[in-house]
C-alpha cells in the first residue's frame, strides 16, 4: 500500500502564474455565492479555478473562440461567456436534452442580469445570450465545419472517458484551428481499452512511450475496465468510517448482483462484457431488490412473470448474507481505492506524453520554442473535487 501511495502523483495545488493557477483569487464559496451562481459549492470552485486557466491560454493564443466540449448544463460555458465577451463561446454536447437545458440556463442568466441592474444601460451585445449551442459528437474531421472560428481553444470540465483523452487530444493535434486545450477528465472506466480490430480507437495507451513500456514490461500488465473503475474511487470519501457504507451503496449492489447471477439461472447467458449494467434510474438504486429488477430488465434477463418471481426468490436468498457481504465489499472497495490514484496517474501521464509526442516536445520538458507547451497540474482542492488534475497544452505561434 505504501508503494501505491508513492507511485501516484501528488495532489497539492501549487500556485502557477504562467498557467493561471491562482488559488488566492478564488471567490468566496459561501451559500450566497452559490445561490447567485446557481451552482453547488463544488461546481463553483471548479469553474472559478478552471476559467482562469482557460482565460490565460485564450489570451496567449489570441483565440477568437472558446469551445466547451461536453458542456452539459453549461456551468463553465456561461461563466466563460461572461468573462470573455469579445470571444465567441460554443457549447458542444452530444446529448440534446443537456444542450437544451444549457440554453435555458443561458437565457435565465441574461434575464436575471437585466433584472438585477434595471437602471443600467444595457449594451446590445448583453441583451442576447452570446453562447452558440451545438448538439454533436466531437469529431476532428467535422469540427471545423461546425464553427465560424479560426483560432480556438478546446476546453472540457470533467469530460468523461475517452472524450477528455483520445477524442479531445486528437482533435487538438489534428485540427489546425485548435491552438490550445484545457481539460479535466473523469469517469475513467469509460475509456475504451478493448476494441476489436482497430487499435487506433483505443483510449489507453495513447502514447508510444507507455505502449512500448507495456509491451516490454515483465510481467506484462494492462489496464482493464475493472482497474479503471478504481481510478474513479475517491479515498477522501472514505475518511469518515460512518459514511463508508452509504458511499458504497452502488458498489455493493453491483457486487451482490454478480453473486446473485451465479445462483439464479438467467434466461440467457451473458459474457462478462455484456454484463455491464451502467446507469439506472435513481429509484432503482434505493434498495437491492429494485436494483436487481431494474438491472435484469435492462439486460433482457427478466422476460416473464415467472422469471420475475424466481428472481425475487433468488434475491431473498442472497439477502440472507447481505449484511456480512456488505462489510466485506466495503473493505475491498477501500483497499482498491488505494490503487485508484496510481491508475489515474498512469492514464494522465500517458495523455501528457501523447501530447508531447504529437507536438514534438521532449518528454523531460514542458515547453519547447517552435513546438508548444504541455502541462499536467493539480488545479482543484482534492477534498473539494477529487478529479482535480488539468491537462493544458498550447501550440507554438508558428505551429
Ligand atoms: C460528466 S458530463 C460534464 C458536463 C459539464 N462539463 C460539467 O462539468 O457540468 C460529460 C458530458 O459530456 C457529454 N459527452 C460525452 N461524450 C461526448 C462527445 N464525444 N462529444 C460531445 N459531448 C460528449 C455528455 O453528454 C455529458 O453531458
Task: Explain how this protein is built.
- With 399 residues, the chain is of the alpha/beta class.
- It folds into 2 domains: 2-217 and 339-395, Rossmann fold (3-Layer(aba) Sandwich); 242-337, no CATH class.
- The protein has 16 helices and 8 strands.
- The chain has helices spanning 2-7, 31-37, 41-60, 75-83, 96-116, 124-127, 143-146, 166-174, 208-216, 225-230, 241-247, 249-263, 288-298, 305-320, 322-337, 340-359, and strands at residues 65-69, 88-93, 131-135, 152-160, 178-186, 367-368, 372-378, 389-395.
- It has an 8-stranded mixed β-sheet, sandwiched between helices.
- It is globular.
- The mean pLDDT is 87.
- It binds S-adenosylmethionine.
- Residues 69-73, 75-76, 92-95, 98, 137-138, 157-160, 163, 167, 186 line the site of S-adenosylmethionine (SAM).
Amino acid at each position: 500500500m505504501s508503494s501505491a501511495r508513492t507511485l501516484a502523483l501528488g495532489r497539492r495545488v501549487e500556485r502557477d502564474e504562467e498557467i493561471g493557477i491562482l488559488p488566492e483569487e478564488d471567490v468566496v464559496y459561501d451559500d450566497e455565492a452559490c445561490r447567485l451562481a446557481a451552482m453547488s459549492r463544488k461546481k463553483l470552485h471548479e469553474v472559478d479555478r478552471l476559467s482562469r486557466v482557460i482565460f490565460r491560454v485564450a489570451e496567449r493564443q489570441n483565440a477568437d473562440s472558446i469551445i466547451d466540449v461536453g458542456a452539459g448544463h453549461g456551468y463553465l460555458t456561461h461563466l466563460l461567456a461572461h468573462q470573455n465577451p469579445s470571444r465567441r463561446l460554443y457549447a458542444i454536447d452530444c446529448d440534446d436534452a443537456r444542450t437544451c437545458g444549457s440554453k435555458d440556463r443561458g437565457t435565465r442568466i441574461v434575464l436575471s442580469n437585466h433584472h438585477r441592474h434595471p437602471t443600467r444601460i444595457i449594451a446590445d451585445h448583453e441583451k442576447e445570450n452570446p453562447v452558440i449551442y451545438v448538439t454533436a459528437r466531437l469529431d476532428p474531421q467535422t469540427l471545423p465545419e461546425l464553427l465560424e472560428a479560426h483560432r480556438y481553444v478546446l476546453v472540457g470540465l470533467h469530460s468523461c472517458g475517452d472524450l477528455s483523452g483520445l477524442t479531445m487530444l486528437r482533435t487538438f493535434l489534428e485540427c489546425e484551428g485548435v491552438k490550445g486545450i484545457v481539460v479535466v477528465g473523469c469517469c475513467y472506466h469509460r475509456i475504451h481499452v478493448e476494441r476489436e480490430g482497430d487499435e487506433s480507437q483505443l483510449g489507453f495507451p495513447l502514447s508510444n512511450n507507455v505502449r512500448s513500456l507495456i509491451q516490454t514490461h515483465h510481467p506484462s500488465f494492462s489496464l482493464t475496465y475493472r482497474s479503471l473503475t478504481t481510478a474513479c474511487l475517491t479515498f477522501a470519501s472514505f475518511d469518515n468510517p460512518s459514511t463508508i457504507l452509504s458511499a458504497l451503496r452502488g458498489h455493493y449492489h453491483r457486487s451482490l448482483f454478480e453473486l446473485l447471477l451465479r445462483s439464479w439461472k438467467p434466461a440467457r447467458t451473458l459474457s462478462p462484457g455484456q454484463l455491464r449494467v451502467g446507469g439506472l434510474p435513481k429509484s432503482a438504486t434505493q434498495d437491492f431488490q429494485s436494483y436487481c429488477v431494474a438491472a435484469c430488465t435492462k439486460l433482457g434477463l427478466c422476460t416473464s412473470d415467472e422469471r420475475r418471481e424466481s428472481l425475487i426468490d433468488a434475491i431473498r436468498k442472497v439477502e440472507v448474507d447481505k449484511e456480512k457481504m456488505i462489510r466485506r465489499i466495503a473493505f475491498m472497495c477501500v483497499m482498491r481505492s488505494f490503487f485508484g490514484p496510481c491508475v489515474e496517474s498512469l492514464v494522465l501521464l500517458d495523455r501528457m506524453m501523447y501530447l508531447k509526442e504529437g507536438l514534438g516536445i521532449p518528454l523531460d520538458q514542458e515547453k519547447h520554442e517552435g513546438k508548444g507547451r504541455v502541462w499536467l497540474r493539480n488545479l482543484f482542492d482534492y477534498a473539494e473535487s477529487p478529479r482535480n488534475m488539468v491537462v493544458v497544452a498550447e501550440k507554438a505561434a508558428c505551429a
